[in-house]
Amino acid sequence: MVGTLLTLVAIGLFFSSRYYSSLLIFIGLATKGFLIIPQEWLTAGLPVEKTSDMAVMYIVVICVLRFGTLQRAIRHDSILRWLVLFVAFVFVDGLYSRFGLGYELTSVVRIFRNNLFLLSFFVFMLVPVQSLIRVWHAVAVITLIQCVLFLLQIPTGTVLLGYQESTHINNMESIGWIRYYNTPTFLIPTLFYYLFAYEYRSKVAKWLIVGLLLVTVIAPMHRSLMLIIALVSSAYILSQQTTSKRFLYIALLTIVGNGAMMIESIQSRMNDGLADISKILAPGHAVTYLTYDANDTFTYRIAHLAERLAYVTAEPMRLLFGIGLLTEDAKQASKLTFEAGLYNRHTGEISQIETGDIAWSLLILYIGVVGTIFFIVLHVRLLRCFFQHRDVPISVVGALTMMTVFLLSFTGVEILYGSFQISMTLMLGAAIKIAATPIFRTHETRLTRPPSSLVATLFPA
Fold it and tell me: How much is the mean pLDDT over the chain?
């Protein structure tokens, strides 16, 4: 009942123009109580599985009650139109799954509902820009608290972030490190925010905050996460420097990189990753016939994707809709015969659908090749919009986050999470509204771009 009451309170606060508190409750529900408030407290006595279901209801109610504004915005705002069209495509895929393939309604709804977080862009565009900036900064501060809790897990051996039963722990004896996988929800955008957008009052505070975030990035020993964040950050910093300073930065980066590689645990992880990738690049290997073992993570991911892509492209309807919106525990999933997949300890079989290793396998299965291309085009348009407003600091954070998560989609599924969709649409909404304001000061940054009459009409600042 607590979750229901919070949802009703959040909706009431929104329509009484108390946006800051409303959006904080919404984001808290969407992220399992920021991984701090026990989820069972929020869902006790309710028929829902996750607090994110209540966050979806929050979005739906606002869209329904502001349907007139939504219709006008769809006609005039290209970003919102693309978001709605993609959600509509997945909805049609859901109808095909239910009535064409005979899947159970619960299975279809469980897959479809997460796409509704894309419509949070409309919700954020209804909110004054000052409230959006306040909400994002509050989320960033909460992320710092999450980082402290995450790091305390290593010396204490106790799960402090999220839930014990759902937290994956990997005792890497080869590197002498216990890896906790329950990293803070908004770690990546928060890191870029405090690196490139936030204005500090002291250098001590800057190094303490950035240091805390960087240690949190390194602690779980995710090779791809560390490498991609380093590459994206370096590329952005280099783009902002003069030619002479670029050489200095590259030299400094080389020294730091070599120093990091001298740490035995990091060196071990990187060497394993390079050996894994070399198998993919070796001549005479077809990806559909790759062999791999438990340690060949990247080889496994490529084999996983190749097998599912070959299956989907075998029939025209699968090209359009994939296998449909089907969950792992649905009865129809047992008829699939994929060989590449993780061993499911509960069923004693290979997982046919679910994977946390590569987002593209899930996309190909759920929405087919056509839907996956639609997904890519949508995200390219979102990234273009961030670049168009790159004079706004929060837009830079959004662009760097999107590029990082897109590259990480080959080693994880964060790009499909509702939390990622919320962070992207919040930052994009804030960037558009800031750029549409004649003079707006945030963190000592002045913008002089003329306001957009459309934005001012549909989404008053």
Answer: 84
Dig out the tokens for 301 from the structure.
Answer: 């991911």
CA-based nearest residue to 90, from 451, 455, 374, 408: 374
pLDDT digits (tens, 9 = 90+) for 50-63: 889 999 999 999 99
**Pairing verdict, β 445-447 and 440-442:** antiparallel
3-state secondary structure of 180: strand
Backbone angles phi, psi at 136, to 5 degrees: -60, -40
- 211/164: higher pLDDT: 211
Amino acid at 214: L
Helix (H) or strand (E) holding 344: strand 343-344
For residue 178, what pLDDT is reported? 76
Q: What's the sign of the alpha-carbon dihedral 70, 136, 14, 42? A: positive
Residue 446: helix, strand or coil by DSSP?
A: strand
Q: Which DSSP state fits 219? A: T
Q: Given this model, what pLDDT does residue 340 score?
A: 84
For helices 52-65 and 2-15, give the axis angle rounded to 10 degrees. Answer: 30
Measure the CA–CA gap between 85 and 72, rounded to whole angstroms.
15
**The 3-state secondary structure of 62-73, one letter per residue:** HHHHCHHHHHHH
